[in-house]
Amino acid sequence: MTSPTPTAVEVAVIGAGPAGLTAALVLGRQKRTVVLIDSGQPRNSPATEMHMYLGLDGRPPGELRSVGMDEVAGHPNVEIVHSTVTGLEVTDADTPIRLSTSDGGSFLAERLLVTAGVRDDVSGIPGVAERFGQGVFHCPFCHGHEVDGRRLAVLTDDPENPAQPGLQAVYLATHFSRDVTLLTNGHPVPEEIHETLARNGIVLDHRPVTEVTGTDGALTVCAGGEDLTFGAVFHTPREQSRHSVLGLEIDTEGAHILVDWQQRTSDPRVFAAGDCARRRDDPVPLAFVARAVAAGQAAALWIDQDLFRVRAGLG
Ligand SMILES: Cc1cc2nc3c(=O)[nH]c(=O)nc-3n(C[C@H](O)[C@H](O)[C@H](O)COP(=O)(O)OP(=O)(O)OC[C@H]3O[C@@H](n4cnc5c(N)ncnc54)[C@H](O)[C@@H]3O)c2cc1C
Asked: Are 278 and 258 in contact (CB under 8 A)?
């Protein structure tokens, strides 16, 4: 239970995915007082397997989370709160950062680390959201190897990014399958990629997609009233911000908090890491578990150094 009197900590961390858990572990080991607040919705939870993470490749994503939670819980100076941050006040440098949670908790922190991830705005076509992460995949790096040799489809449902599905179809055709269909769902395909699609044998189907049924390995997509079968469907949802901090600089898509090489945001007391953050020099945001772990570690290190300099009077 959290008390109504604010608990003062050195660092508050919002989100216990791979980034937040790693940061809490680093800070816990350096004997910082930390509150790690988590609402229990890690991004890859719909997937049955996690890939490209050394030592746990192919294991359920929950395994990393549960081991991480246990390791962090071993540090009595880190409090894990299972709740949602609903209120946040970051004012002037002399006033502690104030957080409040949906269960009535309240915290004062000297530094804030946002590791709240992003939310996937999955297509509303019936059957897609239920299969997201299990038959309907967002990323050929995370899931391409597992669908090697299958008949694949790429589903377009974001008119604002028209070239991406076509290029993803070509990518899949060059790596994993010679049988790839681009389901444009009636959205136009940019002229400049027509020849590339044709050269790589991509089948174009412009009919409206009304439903996806079946299971991973045997999916049925209804396009223009006809049932088409595929081994897997790729669909890249737009990323939405999960937790915003008023006044911080964000990228042009509005989903990512901009950070420097120390994972520091435009407010010197606020850091961000993992999927919710984007380095200013990154041309595109890259969202993978290993990168979230690395960024969470870097953020914790620089937060600790920051506090060390203040405590030691180094300016
Ligand atoms: C279906 C799917 C499968 C994937 N598979 C892979 C894979 O195989 N390999 C790979 O490398 N990457 C994979 N990814 C990407 C991977 O999931 C992310 O890169 C990774 O989870 C990012 O970690 P994170 O710590 O930044 O955020 P997350 O893991 O999303 O964790 C964020 C945490 O913050 C919490 N939170 C959010 N808002 C609040 C709030 N207001 N208060 C309290 N808590 C809050 C959430 O509940 C969540 O627990 C996959 C993604 C998806 C969508």
From this structure: yes
